[in-house]
Amino acid sequence: MDALYHLGEIYSKGCEDADGIIIKSDILMAIRYYRQAADQGHTKAQIRLGNILVTGVHSHHEWDDQQQGVESKPILAFHYLTKAAVEGDDAEAMNALGQLYEIGFGSEIWNEEESLERARKWYAKGMEKGNATATFNLGSMYESGSGVEMSIEKALKLYIEVKL
Questions:
Q1: Of 82, 100, 93, nearest to 44 (Cα)?
Q2: b/e sequence 61-82, b meaning 16+ C-beta within 10 Å
Q3: For a FRET experiment, which of 48, 112, 124, 159 has its CA 20 to 30 Å from that of 146?
Q4: 100, 108, 153, 154 from 123: Cα distances, Å
């Protein structure tokens, strides 16, 4: 599983080794390896694949004048991020899910109030696992009153916890 994830990383970024062997960035190959690792339960691969699928990715290769990429697939993104958050107990995935719900991904399934409540819950879970970004995002919800009762006091406590 780790080897598949690392192959995804190599193809995602491209690399050159000490002998001058070059592997050019190839997002479609990266996605292939991330998906294989993710389907075997590799949490980091689930997160990387989920994040790619949120917005989709397109790249242009200068060496062959080809474009490649993948369209946004929010349902599949939710699937992989949820697996990472629930099965992998991963705070980064919890924060990512909170962000998706807060900006309205899944709004065709849930109304705004339900989406914001789900965002709050995922941020809180991420915060409990020590994720500073989730803690900050939860504080921001309290500061603005977005989906929660506005509370500057709670927002400040959370911001102090992040040490902003």
A1: 93
A2: eeeeeeeeebeebbebbbbbbb
A3: 48
A4: 11, 21, 18, 14
SS3 for 81?
helix
pTM of the entire structure? 0.85
- Determine the pLDDT at residue 63: 46
Lowest mean pLDDT among 63-77, 83-97, 127-141, 145-159: 63-77
Q: How far is residue 120 from each of residues 42, 111, 156, measured CA to CA in Å?
A: 26, 14, 16
> What average pLDDT does range 53-64 have in this prediction?
66
Reported CATH class of domain 90-164: mainly alpha
Higher local confidence (pLDDT), 107 or 124: 124
